[in-house]
Amino acid sequence: MPLRALRPCKQAGCPMLTRDANGYCDQHKPLASSQHMEYKRGRTDKREQAFYNSGAWRKARGAALRRDHGLCQHCLRAGKITAAVMVHHLTEIKVNWLLRLDLGNLVSLCDRCHNKIPPTRRKL
């Protein structure tokens, strides 16, 4: 099996290159893991958790990524080409549950752009 291409570490300002599937260098892997655990800990709503594990969400997420050609839409507007790794709800599902599967409410983002969204608005 061929080696994964070297990519810059996702941690802002880190000059290291990595082949890691998560995109973090060896130094920042523990930080990324702890951030993810903290993010998941903030999800206490059982209905929301069940939704993100559902086939309907996986289908909608895939449709949004295909529509956006797998590219981060915020980076694209800034003239940069970056792979999207997540799909973000523009209107949080806690605010309007009915928009949870609406493609017009979904946008493909890279990790860096998603992290720029204030935590109160950052739900995947």
Estimate the mean pLDDT confidence. 86
Which bin fits the share of residues in helices? 25-40%
Regions with little confidence, pLDDT below 50 for 5+ residues: none
Could you spell the SSE succession in H and E letters?
EEHHHHEEH
Taken as a percent bin, the fraction of beta residues is 5-15%
- For the termini, the CA-CA separation is 32 Å
Number of strands: 4
Query: Tally the helices: what do you get?
Result: 5
> What is the molecular shape?
globular
Main pleated-sheet profile: 2 strands, antiparallel
Total domain units: 2
* Class derived from helix and strand content: alpha+beta
What does this protein look like?
This protein is an alpha+beta fold and 124 residues long. The protein has helices spanning 29-41, 46-52, 55-67, 73-77, 111-116, and strands spanning 7-8, 17-18, 86-89, 106-109. Strands 1-2 form a two-stranded antiparallel ribbon. A two-stranded antiparallel sheet has the order 3-4. The model has no long low-confidence stretch (mean pLDDT 86).
